[in-house]
Amino acid sequence: MKRHVKLIPVQPEQAEAFVRMAQRYFCELNPQFRPTSAWREAFSGRLLLGNNPVVRWIGDDTTVMGFVIFGHQPHPYLPKRVGVVYELYVVPEHRHSGVASLAAAEVIEALRNCSVDRVQLEVMEGNQGAAIFWRKIGFAKVAERYVLPLRGRG
């Protein structure tokens, strides 16, 4: 049986459930992660209010299997629009079932419909599973990103 997933808008009344899942995700990426009040405010309020970036549950008619955050922005110096996948998270019990691939395809199609010229994303250093996943979909590594924190843990 072929699996199907939907990208379902996260409703304001679901903010706390979304924050809990986002916190779980960030703790998986970094066990030292501790959400600040600013982080909680962003993930429970501001992020859910706008339409760019887009915040969606990944699910089917009965189950939430993860979430995705994506959007588009102007290219910094060319007359183009760039699609961005900011986060794509599938809960462990639904991994390796095709859910992430189906969700990624839905996101790419949504961004294509926004007339973007390309889609980009970042993979956290050491997250080889994510790097392999995105390469299988057709993404290519084109750069490395370096960060200099000036305040806190940046």
Q: Can you offer a commentary on this structure?
A:
This protein is α+β, with helices and mostly antiparallel strands and 154 residues long. The chain has a single domain, classed as Gcn5-related N-acetyltransferase (GNAT) (Aminopeptidase), CATH 3.40.630.30. It is built from 4 helices and 5 strands. The protein has helices spanning 15-29, 37-49, 99-112, 128-137; strands at residues 6-9, 54-59, 64-74, 81-90, 118-121. Strands 1-2-3-4-5 form a 5-stranded mixed sheet, sandwiched between helices. Helix 1 (15-29) packs across helix 2 (37-49). The radius of gyration is 16 Å and the shape is globular. The protein starts with 5 loop residues before the first strand and ends in a 17-residue tail after the last helix. The model has no long low-confidence stretch (mean pLDDT 90).
Briefly, what is this?
The chain is 34% helix and 23% strand. The protein has 154 residues and is of the alpha+beta class.
Any chance you could write out the topology, listing elements then pairs?
Elements: E1 6-9, H1 15-29, H2 37-49, E2 54-59, E3 64-74, E4 81-90, H3 99-112, E5 118-121, H4 128-137
Parallel strand pairs: 4-5
Antiparallel strand pairs: 1-2, 2-3, 3-4
